[in-house]
Design goal:
The chain is mainly alpha-helical. Helix content is 78%, strand content 0%. The longest helix is centred in the C-terminal third of the chain and has 38 residues. The two termini are 30 Å apart.
C-alpha cells in the first residue's frame, strides 16, 4: 500500500509478531513464577519444623483444597461470597459515581454532603456493624450493606476529584465552540474524570473484599469467611488456609479485571 506521498505504507497488522512466534511465557510472568516457586518452596522446606496446628504446609493446603472441592463446600462458599461481593460492589460503583458527579457539579450538594462523606470515610465503619445487624438482621442484605459501606467512599472521593480537576483550557474550548452544558459534561468533564473514576474502582475492590470477609465473620458465619472461622476453631489449619488462598487469588483476579476496564476507559478517553 502507498500513501498520498507515494511512500510504501506497511499495515499495522503486518508489524505484529504472530501468536505462534511470541514466547509462551513473558519475562514478567517468568519473574512471577520464579518468585512463587522460591516463596512456596521455602515455606514447604522451613515449615516442616513448625507446629502443624499453627502453620500448614503448601502441600497440605493443596490436599485440603482437593478434599473441600470434592465435598462441594469450597465451591458453595465461594459462590456465596462472590454473590455478596458482586451486588455490593456494583451498588457502590453506581451510587458512588452518582454522588461524586453530583457533588462535583453542584456546589450546594458538595457543601451539604462533604462533611458526612469525610466523617464516614475516616471513621471505623466496623463499629456500625452491630447496629446494622439490629436493623436488618444477619442475612444477605446486611452483608451487602456492609460491602457498600466500605467500598462506596473511594468511588465518591475519586469521582469528585476527577470532576473538579478538569483542565480549564478544555472547558474554555467548549465555551468557544458554543457547547451546551450537557455537551460539556458528557464530552469534556466525564472523559477527563475517567482516570480518577478508574482509580476509585480499583481501590473499591480491595475494600469490598475486606468488607465481605468482615461481614461473614460478624454476621452469619458463612461463605469463605465462615470456612476460616469454622476450621480455625476446629484446629484444622490446612483447611483454614484454603479460603485465605482463594481470597488472595480472587483479589488478584478482580484487581486485574478492573485494571483491564481502566485501560479500556483510558483508550476511550
Amino acid at each position: 500500500m502507498r500513501n498520498s506521498d507515494g511512500d510504501v505504507k506497511i499495515p499495522a497488522s503486518a508489524t505484529r509478531t504472530p501468536f505462534y512466534v511470541r514466547p509462551f511465557v513473558s519475562h514478567d510472568n517468568w519473574i512471577r513464577i520464579v518468585t512463587a516457586v522460591v516463596l512456596f518452596g521455602s515455606w514447604e522446606f522451613f515449615g516442616r519444623g513448625v507446629n502443624p496446628l499453627l502453620v500448614a504446609l503448601p502441600s497440605q493446603v493443596l490436599i485440603a483444597t482437593w478434599e473441600m472441592l470434592l465435598t462441594g463446600e469450597l465451591l458453595a462458599a465461594t459462590v456465596e461470597s462472590l454473590s455478596v461481593f458482586a451486588v455490593g460492589y456494583l451498588i457502590s460503583l453506581v451510587l458512588g459515581m452518582a454522588i461524586g458527579i453530583l457533588m462535583g457539579t453542584s456546589r450546594t450538594a458538595e457543601v451539604a454532603l462533604d462533611p458526612y462523606v469525610n466523617a464516614l470515610y475516616s471513621m471505623p465503619l466496623i463499629a456500625l456493624v452491630p447496629i446494622l445487624m439490629l436493623w436488618v438482621g444477619v442475612g444477605f442484605t446486611s452483608k451487602v450493606i456492609i460491602v457498600v459501606m466500605f467500598a462506596i467512599f473511594p468511588v465518591i472521593i475519586n469521582t469528585l476529584a476527577g470532576v473538579r480537576n478538569v483542565e480549564k483550557s478544555y472547558l474554555d474550548i467548549g465555551v468557544a465552540f458554543g457547547a451546551t452544558r450537557w455537551m460539556t459534561f458528557s464530552g469534556i468533564v466525564i472523559p477527563s474524570a475517567v482516570p480518577y473514576i478508574a482509580s476509585g474502582m480499583r481501590l473499591a475492590v480491595s475494600r469490598a473484599i475486606i468488607a465481605m470477609i468482615v461481614a461473614e465473620f460478624l454476621t452469619s458465619i458463612a461463605g469463605l469467611g465462615g470456612l476460616i472461622i469454622n476450621y480455625s476453631n476446629q484446629f484444622q489449619t490446612a483447611k483454614a488456609f484454603v479460603p485465605v488462598f482463594i481470597l488472595a487469588i480472587l483479589g488478584n483476579l478482580l484487581t486485574h479485571s478492573v485494571k483491564l476496564v481502566e485501560d479500556r476507559m483510558s483508550a476511550w478517553r
